[in-house]
Amino acid sequence: MTADNGQNRFENALMSVVAEGVDVVLDYLWGDSALAIMSALARAHTDRTTRFVSIGTSSGQENIHLPSSILRSSTIELVGSGDKSVSKADMLSAVKGVFDMAAEGKLKIAIKEFALEDIEVAWNAPLTPRPVVKVQ
Description:
By secondary structure, this protein is an alpha/beta fold. It has five helices and five strands; from the N terminus they run αβαβαβαβαβ. It has a three-stranded parallel β-sheet with strand order 1-2-3, covered by helices on one side. Strands 4-5 form a two-stranded parallel ribbon. The protein is extended, with a radius of gyration of 20 Å.
């Protein structure tokens, strides 16, 4: 199987997901998967703008060949997330907002507590509710 064949199969599998439109893609991988996602978004021809946020390169591929036709035939907004992708003032304002919401009791996270001796059970527990190991 060639890389293009695998990418095309991945892109085709994504079509049912992107058909209704996607608001945000948080991409930690980059590489071939990012290109397949953007290609599927372009082929879906929805009226919804998709913000594609590049967060990392866990795939190990730093560079991709992104045809300009993907951007010309879609409403993808390509942005990065990193130290310089937002101003320090905006970042501090956002953090303050989260802290204020937490202080006002407006943030709720469902948790399930585990004793330290049950750490293996906690490690294998579902992520919802969030497993928390209580250390006393």
